[in-house]
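Contributing new records

If you add data, match the layout below exactly. Sequence lines come first and carry their own label; structure lines follow with theirs. Keep one chain per record. Anything else will be rejected by the validation script.
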Amino acid sequence: MIRPIPEACVSIRQMRHEDLAHVSDIERRSYDFPWSHGVFRDCLLAGYQCVVLERNGELAGYGILSVAAGEAHILNLCIEPAYRSCGYGERLLDEILFRARTSSVREIFLEVRPSNANAIALYKKKGFHQVANRPAYYQSRRGREDAAVLSKKLTTDD
């Protein structure tokens, strides 16, 4: 169940270099095996579509989209733990899907941990379906965890 979004000014904008420290902090609070500051920096330098969600001027989430050859790949989508279940993840995902469509992408992919039930529910709500499984893809505290590969066909009608 999604909690109602508290009265707040919410906006999404391009990630900037000066956001990287805060993005890295959110990542570390969110995952046992987080991306490094350098990975985020490299995504910016590579020209990936990197966006942040701000709530009342404070970074509350981010997303990273890679686009190539008519396909897109959501590399990372994360909301600050304190702001989860407020609808911000859906709002950020909608922005990423919009950006993929405007880049003439026909299909979008992502990997997600099968143990991440909230993320899977959001992706399924948005029309993603599982197309593959990547064995031992993620590090976990118990060794390795598979990744569910999800896909969605994009049309201008979405």
